What we know:
Shape of chain B: globular
Order of helices and strands of chain B: HHHHHHHHHHHHHHHHH
Strand content of chain A: 5-15%
Number of helices of chain B: 17
Radius of gyration of chain B: 23 Å
Mean pLDDT of chain B: 93
Number of domains of chain B: 2
Number of strands of chain B: 0
Distance between the termini of chain A: 78 Å
Order of helices and strands of chain A: HHEHEEHEEHEEHHEHEHH
Number of helices of chain A: 10
Structural class of chain A: alpha+beta
Strand order of the largest sheet of chain A: 8-1-9
CATH topology of the largest domain in chain B: Formate dehydrogenase/DMSO reductase fold
Low-confidence stretches of chain A: 1-31, 33-38
Radius of gyration of chain A: 31 Å
Oligomer: heterodimer
Structural class of chain B: mainly alpha
Number of strands of chain A: 9
Largest interface: A-B, 60 and 60 residues
CATH class of the largest domain in chain B: Mainly Alpha
Strand content of chain B: under 5%
Largest sheet of chain B: none
Mean pLDDT of chain A: 86
Amino acid sequence: MKERTEKGAGEPQRETHRSECGEQPQGSCGLNRRGFLGVMGAVSGTALLASTAPVHAYKKFEGWPDRYGMLSDLTACVGCRSCERACNEANGLPKPEKSFEDGSVFSKLRRTDEKTYTVVNRYENPKDPEMPIYRKVQCMHCNEPACATACPIHAYSKTPEGAVTYDPDKCFGCRYCMVACPFGIPTYDYESAFQPRIYKCVLCYDRLKVGQIPACAQACPMEAITFGKRSDLLRLAHERILEHPDRYIDHVYGEKEAGGTSWLYLSSVPFGELGFPTNLPDRPLVEETKGFLSSVPVVFAVWPALFGMIYASVQHRDALQTELKEQQEKEEERQ
Amino acid sequence: MNHHETAVKTDNFRTWFMDKLLMGMDWSDYMRQLITPFNIIAAIILSIGLPLIAIRFIYGLASVTHASQDYPWGIFLGWGLFGGVPLSATGFVLATAYYIFGFKKYKPLVRLAVLTGFLGYLFAVIYLLCDLGRPWRIYYPMIIGFGTASVLFLVAWHVATYLTVQFLEFSPAILEWLQSKRVRKWALSITIAMTIAGIILSTLHQSALGAMFLLAPGKVHPLWYSSYMPALFLCSSVYAALTMVIVVSTLAARFLKKAADQKFLSSLNPLTLGLGKGASLTMYVYFVLKLISVAHDDNWSLLATPYGQWYLLEIIGFVLLPAMILSLGVKADRVGIVRLGAFAGVLGIVVNRINTSMVALNWNLPGHLHHIIPPWQEVAIVLAIATIHILVFRWILMRMPVIREAPEYTDH
């Protein structure tokens, strides 16, 4: 691949340049066309050689290398809802009806909405009924987010920091992102007639940019949420499983689900029992529609030729028949 | 002097134009003939639905729909877009058959099919405008941001382009009505190009509507979720078109006889048999594709579940049975039976699209079937838009040469 880049794009054009103006004083070949092309070749060749990254026609992208993530250890969470409060304050969201100290919210499973970017739900612990399991729900910040794939206007971005952000100025409110998200995270403000928009966790992107960590991770008193580079967190998660095989099941949720997510979870019970979707493919969801979209250029190229030829052949047949008929009529006249 | 001449010309134009709009009647006659049982029912539906549409735009979607965080889409899209678009494949299918493949006998139905398609897309967009959070940004995928990895991006571009293509395809009828010979000639000259553009756009966006659901493998019931979805949506749109042309032509001949000429009325029975034959063959292919999609994912065991029984009812009761009714009618040369099969086929398309976009989507959420029942306001809005659709359709059929030929223009 490397060889192809150097030879394919850079070298031959540089050589052309040299042969054109090599023996002349510099600048004298500026105005004829081939000379101009040569200069252009030299410029682009130099630019290519100067950049350290190899340039390929095929772009391979395995995600932003230093993207951040969060590791949520469900065995450590005690359901204090400090993260909910911190999220609410950091994002300037309206105060909830029931206070963050009110444990009665656990009586039913809640979900995120346009006023709540994260919720903690309580699940029965099949191993120890005395110790319920609490699960924090928020945007998973997928490596290749389905919401971003779904959006026809590119309102979503996966930033190099790992956050999946949303730009309300681009959104026209089709809500396909809500259909596409495997975790049911984007929420809509149906009450608003004139400025409805999507609301969801953006990994406190504004805080990330100024070197702070997401509010929920900072607020957690139990260190149930760890912030860090996703690659480090993955290593940490597997180390914990290795150290405490009795405490954790051998599965880091978010490592592979839907192509991997920036949020990772450790749990003592299978994730299906805690309401996590367990029917997701390991590859990013964008892969499911890639095959279809790759048929588009084929249709654009083949259909006009195919149907144009069919049209032409039908016309041709008609013309032949008319000709034949005319000939027959002429012969009949002669007879 | 000059001033006087202009005044006369303007006056003539106005008389001529009002004559066109009122179909040669004066205002009082025109208003009087509007009072019919159908129009009274339409007026009642609109008097309920139009204020509800106003409420939706003043107070937001929450005021008239049950749209929620788990259920972002309802019947505006399930019926209006996912159901409406395949039933509007009429223009693409009949224009291809007539202009490209040379099925010249179908000429009396081509314009009706193109009009059905054009209005179908127009109203699919109107349902979409009702559903979009900020409908005034509908052009955003064309200018503001390009989500090229999105199947919906393709749908948006194609539906917009195809709406224009279909308008151009139908424009000769409008120009004949307005007696604009020169522009009509130009409009006719692009027919073949527009028809081929229609094939490209239609094959892609009909299948794209199915591909949209490929993005939600965790949410769509595995019996409906299949890599075959784009092919299934495309295949069913073809028979949707054929059965829809039978339905629309039957209704037009029955209720708008005065707008039709003898050529249209007398050709209807043999053409209906031909369309019925094509539709039934396509439906058998579709039925087999549906079975192969189950086999492909090895989902046979799911057929024994309640959702499986609903799936079987869909493909047997709403696909195989209508196909057999159509075959029976064609074999026995009984147009009435073919029409019955066509109505059932159209119903089957709506059942499939509502199943895919509403029943199968989110099937694993608790209380799912309870959540997809729309509130009465949403139904009333859909009824109002459907009523306007029928009124516009009738308005055009009564005025423009669609199911009759304008005597001076027969060369299209």
